[in-house]
Design brief:
17 helices, two-stranded parallel ribbon, about 65% helix, mainly alpha
Length: about 350
């Protein structure tokens, strides 16, 4: 899907009153309240699985069965990333300090620079799917619109021709990219607490590599690292791909009011409890973007209120199945790369 224009509401509807009315409905339903019991249980379970996974590495030891533990830990790392996400949005704790401490601990557990990621993710939330303002649409490897394809050089120009077919294979590098981007961000002097982030990052790398190469033979340790990081990348990328890819892309001065900016660029994914667990509540992407600090277990309950409100306003509320969401994302990527298939790419 290429760049779309979003219909702006009449001037009388641009004041934000549509969102204000929705906010009152959500507040009256008690959906912005903290869920300490839920998060205490979730953190305990994920922490237990994290420790148990590394204990299994030690117990299985010099056996190729340890690669199944690597796959298990890839999923656990994804769940830790989701907890870091919730903490950064103050879904877990109301106070900033508690949110930052818990987010940094979770980020350190998976080798992610918390300050870098929080800055990037905050900018994404402010302008989702805006070609000029959303850092998730930077054409650093893939192109997200035909305009980006026409201007592409280097790897994006080479990969962009067939990027829809390469998307999931490229996700195997996303775990490594997370680490590299976190380290590169330490050179940014405007990044707050970058020294602390650097210490936590390198502590993670030292402990991670020491444990692997101490417990496993060299070849098996390398195989474990590859399986673990590649599957972690696939899981991480699959968490976020359904949310905005294939939805309208904004550019320039195209900035509708807050409610429409968030709803019309986001997609929900249908599913039950298992979908909520696997995607960490991000399957309720529309509700999450409208109310980022809403605890993730409340998002499902908010869905009916938000959907009804959007229907009353005549605002499109998009919800699909998981497989369909991936198909739409891949179709969008293929269409974005179309200009590159019409021209010969220099050798």
């Amino acid at each position: 899907m290429t760049t779309h224009s979003i219909v702006r509401p009449p001037p009388s509807e641009r004041s934000g009153s549509d969102f204000a009315r929705l906010s009152r409905k959500i507040a009256d339903a008690g959906l912005m309240g903290r869920r300490p019991g839920y998060y205490a249980l979730r953190i305990t379970v994920v922490a237990g699985l994290y420790v148990g996974g590394w204990a299994a590495v030690a117990l299985v030891g010099d056996s190729w069965w340890t690669l199944t533990v690597a796959a298990f830990l890839a999923v656990v790392f994804g769940q830790v990333a989701l907890l870091a996400h919730d903490a950064a949005h103050r879904q877990v704790f109301r106070r900033r300090r508690a949110s930052e401490v818990s987010g940094r601990i979770a980020g350190a557990g998976i080798g992610m620079g918390y300050g870098w990621w929080q800055d990037k993710h905050t900018r994404h939330h402010a302008n989702p799917n805006h070609e000029d303002l959303d850092p998730d649409l930077d054409p650093d490897l893939l192109v997200w619109s035909q305009d980006q394809a026409r201007a592409a050089t280097g790897l994006p120009r080479l990969i962009g021709r067939w990027q829809a077919f390469l998307f999931f294979p490229l996700l195997t590098l996303e775990g490594f990219n997370l680490h590299v981007s976190s380290v590169r961000a330490l050179a940014n002097r405007s990044l707050k607490h970058r020294t602390l982030d650097g210490v936590l990052l390198f502590a993670h790398f030292v402990v991670y590599l020491t444990v692997l190469f101490w417990l496993l033979p060299l070849g098996m340790a390398i195989a474990f690292l590859a399986v673990h990081q590649c599957l972690f990348g696939v899981y991480l990328g699959s968490l976020f791909a359904p949310n905005h890819k294939g939805m309208p892309i904004l550019k320039g001065e195209d900035r509708p009011d807050f409610l429409r900016r968030q709803v019309l660029t986001s997609r929900n994914v249908r599913g039950g409890l298992l979908t909520d667990i696997a995607l960490g509540g991000l399957n309720h992407q529309i509700e999450h973007h409208l109310f980022p600090s809403m605890p993730s277990p409340n998002l499902r309950r908010a869905r009916a209120i938000v959907r009804s409100h959007c229907e009353d306003l005549g605002v499109d509320y998009v919800e699909t199945g998981l497989i369909t969401s991936y198909r739409l994302a891949l179709v969008s990527l293929h269409q974005a790369g179309a200009p590159l298939r019409k021209t010969r790419v220099p050798a």
